Amino acid sequence: MPGNKRNYGSIRCFHRCLVAGYDRRIWNMKILFYDTKKYDRDSFEKILPEYSDLEVEFLEADLSPRTAALAKGYDAICAFVSSDVSEKVVECLAANGVKLVLMRCAGFNNVDLDATNRCGITVLRVPGYSPEAVAEHAMALALAVTRRIHKSYIKVRENNFSLVGLTGMNFYGKTAGIIGTGKIGAAMCRICHGFGMKVLAYDMYRNPSLDFVEYVDLDTLLSTSDLISLHCPLTDDSYHMICTETINKMKDNVILVNTSRGALIKTEDLITGNRNKKFFGIGLDVYEEETNNVFENREDDILESSITARLLSFPNVIVTSHQGFLTEEALEAISRTTLDNARDYENGTIKDINAV
User: Fold this and answer.
1) What one-character DSSP code corresponds to residue 304?
2) Which listed residue (137, 190, 322, 336) is catalytic?
3) Among the options 190, 231, 261, 336, which is catalytic?
4) Contact, 230 vs 242, CB < 8 A?
5) Would you say 47 and 338 are in contact if contact means Cβ atoms under 8 Å apart?
6) Is 137 designated active site?
7) 195-249 per-position pLDDT tens digit
8) Backbone angles phi, psi at 230, to 5 degrees
9) What's the pLDDT band for 342 if we cut at 50, 70, 90?
10) Do residues 140 and 337 touch, judged by C-beta distance below 8 A?
11) DSSP string of 113-128?
12) Residues 47, 22: contact at Cβ < 8 Å?
């Protein structure tokens, strides 16, 4: 396909966890990693010597119906947030003897759990690696769009020191509305509280550690918040929760941030709302139709969809490349939890996602 940078050839970086004195008669679990970038390999290879019972091979190619057969001879595969773990892929993995799917991320909405359950494949994930990493990125996006950092950076690089178009607003004394108060949402609540903001939250389950947060219904949060940040999973109920109906309930000049899942927002409605001057700023680390773009270098390509280009055309919008998780601390936590999951599976001491 034009513009597809993935290499399906022999682009494999092989790493065997063998240490001096290691007994080769002991069975090693063999794991094939899909869609690995340099930062993935660096993070995993740093701790692999501690996991001498695991044998790992890295592929740059992502998991798909085309590449699933490469897992033949492996006990497990490791996939990421944008990997295709659909029914067809799962059936191919099962036919090639794979018994374990390791997701090195928190989300698993890209995994067909009915298919893995039917095929007897266990699915494990990393439910919490560094909630502060994502929350801090969410606040970074909020601050950047609020203080027009992206515009100022470009202007100054062109020796333009004019302040026209750079007027921002204070967060101190304003109201933050956090949708979803799990670990990441809770971290975002604490950051906003530290900025001197009143913090409102909407969640089916209240977080007892957030005694400074006022839980309200969604309509109240939408209508009274100056900053709205999304920190909830993508489900049938939350799909397109931000749409024309909910956007119309928001205050004018609201700031909207999404570091969770792109499909929480109906993009066409977001674009319409922004054209109608509803938003002071929009910060997106995730967005609809990101699958072909996320983690890929497409600087020489013409994008198939106009949605991303339309978002980027707005001066009050910042889009980043699904990088909220990308800190050294988070990568280490992801690596360690993923390999611990593999080891615990060997020992029979861990639950499948299907059983949770």
Assistant:
1) S
2) 322
3) 261
4) yes
5) no
6) no
7) 999 999 999 999 999 999 999 999 999 999 999 999 998 899 999 999 999 999 9
8) -95, 125
9) very high
10) no
11) HHHHHHTT-EEE--S-
12) no
* Alpha carbons 283 and 306: distance in angstroms, whole number: 18
Cα–Cα distance for residue pair 303/296, rounded to 1 Å: 12
Instruction: Mark whether 322 is an active-site residue.
Output: yes
Per the CB < 8 A criterion, the answer to whether 196 and 171 are in contact is yes
Full-model pTM: 0.81
Report residue 188 as tokens.
């975002």
| Token pair for 202 | 């909407």
Indicate if the alpha-carbon torsion angle 232, 332, 298, 58 is positive or negative: negative
Q: What is the DSSP letter of 230?
A: E
Q: Active-site residue among 55, 290, 296, 336? A: 290
290 classed as catalytic:
yes
| Model confidence at 19: pLDDT above 60 | no
Written as six digits, the tokens of 194 are 């530290």
Write a three-state SS string for 125-183: CCCCCCHHHHHHHHHHHHHHHHCCHHHHHHHHHCCCCCCCCCCCCCCCCCEEEEECCCH
Dihedral angle sign, alpha carbons of residues 286, 290, 296, 299: negative
Please name the residue ranges forming H helices in the chain. 38-47, 87-95, 113-118, 131-146, 149-157, 183-194, 218-224, 244-249, 267-275, 306-312, 328-347
| 317 contacts 149 by C-beta, under 8 angstroms | no
